[in-house]
Amino acid sequence: MAVEPLSQKEIADRLSELPGWAVDGDRLTRSYRLPSHFAATALVVHVARIQDELDHHSDLTLGYNTVSLAVNTHSVGGAVTELDFELARRVEEVVGGHGAG
């Protein structure tokens, strides 16, 4: 299946379903604040597993109790695609009600 860049309207529609996510420049981004460094590190491990399953990887930054993601699709010139939103949805499923904000 070919991956195509999303239009600005398609991006806006998908962002409305993912509170906390935004587009910064040409990347889909989100930061999470967790209760501890251990919890943040555990989230990084979960995100790494999702990225490997999708074969689609974000820039992933671990802080003391924060995790930040920034992703776009390099194979279409660094545009935001449905693949980026699939990664975002999967991360949100992992975070769920675990207190990340």
Please describe what this structure looks like.
- The chain contains 3 helices and 4 strands; from the N terminus they run αββαββα.
- With 101 residues, it is α+β, with helices and mostly antiparallel strands.
- It has helices spanning 8-15, 37-54, 82-95, and strands at residues 22-24, 27-33, 59-62, 66-71.
- A hairpin with a 3-residue loop joins strand 3 and strand 4 (66-71).
- It is globular and about 35 Å long.
- The protein has a 4-stranded antiparallel β-sheet with strand order 1-2-4-3.
- It is 40% helix and 20% strand.
- The model has no long low-confidence stretch (mean pLDDT 94).
Rg, rounded, reads 13 Å
Helical residues, percent: 25-40%
Helix segment tally: 3
| Count of strand segments | 4
Instruction: Quickly give the structural class.
Output: alpha+beta
Question: What gap, in angstroms, lies between the N and C termini?
Answer: 34 Å
Q: What is the helix/strand order?
A: HEEHEEH
Strand order across the largest sheet: 1-2-4-3
- Main sheet makeup: 4 strands, antiparallel
Portion in beta strands: 15-25%
Would you tell me the overall average pLDDT? Answer: 94
3D shape: globular
pLDDT < 50 stretches: none
